[in-house]
Amino acid sequence: MSKSVDEKGNVRMEAGNGCRPFGLRDKIGYMFGDFGNDFSFIFAGNYLMVFYTKVLGLSGFAVGLLFLGTRIVDAFTDVTMGRIVDHMKPARDGRFRSWIRRMSIPVAVSSTIMYFWFVRDWPYPAKLGYAIITYLLWSSFCYTGINIPYGSMASVISPDVKDRASLSTFRSVGASLAGLVIGVLVPLAVYRTDGEGNQIVLPERFTITAVVLGALALICYGLCYFLCQERVVFEKKESKRESAGEMLGSLGKNRPLLALVCAALILLLATMLGQTMNNYLFLDYFKNAKALAALNVIGIAGVLMLAPFISRIASGFGKKEAGAVGMLLAGIVYILTYLLHLKSIPLFLALLFLGTMGTGLFNLVIWAFITDIIDYQEVATGKREDGTVYAVYSFARKAGQALAGGAGGFVLTAIGYVSEAPAQTALVADRIYTAATLVPGVCYLAVFLIMQLWYPLTRKEVEKNTAILREKREEGVTFHG
């Protein structure tokens, strides 16, 4: 390990002869980390609203309030977790990697107990209390405890910007594979069609599915832990602890972080609302729940087709530039789909394939944005705050998910959706189509404008920051902007 000491006495070590070189093993391990994360995150994002409304019989409005209220708690737990991993003394297995070991079992258990089907027989207040407690436990504490360190770990697996871009790609592939498993198998497991063509939910299957996904998540977390290695280590000496207000003030001046937070809020609102409404779209508009599997395969296929080329796209065209183009394409396609008001499932799927190519392009580079922003923050302030920066961004993503879940519940209530009804009216079905197409389309165009006009880290700016940090670290000091 090579070592340098900054002007504050912090020791920084990078991989040398005593450390295994960065390679495919790390990429695959990091991929499995998000594979494990998304067994609970995507399952909850796509199906928890369905479970609450269709199985437990909770109102969409109540579920919307639950999702929104939980994010208030997350505002504290996400940032707190980021500060903990930044300032806590590293364990023998690393500053961030050790949290994967500690939190993998709590995440798997907490995500499973959210889907106990027998709760539907409890009184309504008890069902609502069960939903609040179990959702808070998973989302605000257990998932936060593993996701913040996992996301922050990318910046210490390798100091090289190209390596980090490849980690972002492999992370997105892991999320896509989890989405493929959930998108294809879950609709086949939890839905069936009755004699009149209506789509019926199978309550017991939700519990079984949650147990299986929890077990798979544990396996993926184990692979991530054993295959990844931290190579960039900061051993911080005791110094004056920065207050929460000072920390937030510093991050509040970070223009690329603010831009990406706003983009993430809108992107997650569009994506998760679309995924939530797609369940109801295929149940009540197309009346073909099994076609959900085809929709999910198409969405993942676009990402997997792009993945082998994303490193060349990012290095040649730029991450910001590629992401903006992807959002523009997605926005145009979704608005076109709304205007056509399709009844044909094959044509609907064909257009959404083009749209998901756009969102896939953005999602394949989005995690590399975070490592670029961490470097930008260090150049601007002289402080390395991997966990805190990632925590702020993670909160934005979870807030976007909550807004989507909340908006989904509020929209269902506003359009006259009846949870107990075996079938919805044609008017309600048409309104579901609008919510699943027009709203995401407008949101994707808004993200395009944010990335194009507000987010400043072009390819040239990223390369400049990387060169500044490399030069200053070779001198053994921390740069202050």
Give an account of the 3D structure.
The protein is mainly alpha-helical and 481 residues long. Helix 1 packs across helix 9.
Task: Write the SSE topology.
Layout: E1 2-5, E2 11-14, H1 24-55, H2 60-87, H3 97-112, H4 124-152, H5 154-157, H6 161-190, E3 191-193, E4 199-201, H7 203-227, E5 233-235, H8 244-252, H9 255-285, H10 291-306, H11 310-317, H12 319-340, H13 345-381, H14 386-414, H15 426-453, H16 459-474
Antiparallel strand pairs: 1-2, 2-5, 3-4
Helix pairs in contact: 1-4, 1-6, 1-7, 1-9, 2-4, 2-14, 3-4, 3-7, 4-14, 6-10, 6-11, 6-13, 9-14, 9-15, 10-13, 11-12, 12-13, 12-15, 13-14, 13-16
Summarize the structure.
The protein has 16 helices and 5 strands. The protein has helices at residues 24-55, 60-87, 97-112, 124-152, 154-157, 161-190, 203-227, 244-252, 255-285, 291-306, 310-317, 319-340, 345-381, 386-414, 426-453, 459-474, and strands at 2-5, 11-14, 191-193, 199-201, 233-235. Helix 11 crosses helix 12 (319-340).
What structural class do the secondary elements suggest?
mainly alpha
Rg, Å, rounded = 22 Å
- Report the helical percentage: over 70%
Q: What fraction strand?
A: under 5%
Q: What can be said about the biggest beta sheet?
A: 3 strands, antiparallel
Feature tags:
disordered C terminus; 4% strand; mainly alpha; 481 residues; three-stranded antiparallel sheet; two-stranded antiparallel ribbon; 5 strands
